[in-house]
Write a structure and sequence with these properties.
Distance between the termini: 23 Å
Strand content: 5-15%
Structural class: alpha/beta
CATH topology: Rossmann fold
Number of domains: 1
CATH architecture: 3-Layer(aba) Sandwich
Order of helices and strands: EHHEHEHHEHEHHE
Radius of gyration: 18 Å
CATH class: Alpha Beta
CATH superfamily: SGNH hydrolase
């Protein structure tokens, strides 16, 4: 099939769709980018979609491995979020990082593609990841400057306060849940002024845990998710090692036959 309009999604686990489990999708996840593509294709079947994002990728890897691949597909639209995994490292030169990011966005924009960028999430509510809040705030200001300089759209994740509700997060407390990815798809489409048929999810109420129960829940989370995450970083391995991009070529994925 020949696609006259082409959307390519770039990034890490956020864009790959980790947390939005779907056994029928490649890598076992769906995600907000796939949901955005579904709406675009529903409105205009001439859209093709590729998702090159792979979990665990740092900015250098995303720029080196995904930009050229995206440009080869001659995209009309690119979404890219990179840098979150760098910010979580013990040391990072944010200015140098963002200089490279700016160059990558420049290349995408000079190809003629519309580009959508993202600020980082405000993790102040997390006892673990909240320690990177200052870095993320600096990153966000530089992303806004890049968006202004390059004429890119921006989804201001930092200011989407509804994501402070833990109902939008997976049990690993690191990735959005299905509800979170659904809400993010809506916010991305709104930033693009694109129509959609996505109903915002209703969150089930989560009763507050008593102190002892919360301590136990936190300890279980640390054993099952935080400790393995730290261990991978100490061993310099990634959750994405051995994985391939979900949709490396332009396609109409199986879910594109109708919006849901």
């Amino acid at each position: 099939m020949t696609f006259t309009r082409r959307y390519v999604a770039l990034g890490d686990s956020f864009t790959e769709g980790v947390g939005d489990t779907d056994p029928g999708s490649p890598n076992g996840v769906r995600g907000w980018a796939d949901r955005v593509a579904e709406q675009l294709i529903h409105a205009d079947p001439s859209w093709g979609f590729a998702n090159l994002a792979i979990r665990g990728k740092k900015m250098r890897q995303i720029l080196d491995e995904q930009i050229d691949a995206a440009l080869a597909l001659e995209p009309n639209l690119v979404t890219i979020y990179a840098g979150a995994n760098d910010i979580l490292r013990p040391r990072v030169d944010i200015d140098q990082l963002m200089d490279r990011y700016d160059d990558g966005v420049r290349r995408l924009r000079e190809s003629g593609a519309d580009v959508v960028l993202f600020t980082g999430f405000d993790a102040s509510a997390s006892a673990v990841f909240g320690t990177t809040r200052g870095r993320t705030a600096i990153y966000n200001e530089l992303v806004r400057e890049i968006a202004d300089r390059r004429g890119a759209l921006i989804v201001d994740y930092w200011r989407l306060r509804e994501f402070q509700d833990w109902g939008y997060w997976d049990v690993d407390r690191m990735h959005m849940s299905t509800a979170g990815h659904t809400l993010m798809a809506v916010r991305v489409l709104e930033a693009m002024s694109a129509s959609h048929r996505i109903d915002l999810p209703e969150l089930a109420e989560r009763p507050a845990l008593r102190r002892l129960a919360q301590v136990r829940a936190d300890a279980q989370w640390a054993r099952e998710y935080l400790t393995p995450w730290v261990g991978r970083r100490l061993r310099r391995v990634s959750s994405g090692d051995g994985l391939s991009a979900k949709y490396p070529a332009l396609v109409h994925p199986r879910w594109a036959s109708g919006a849901s």
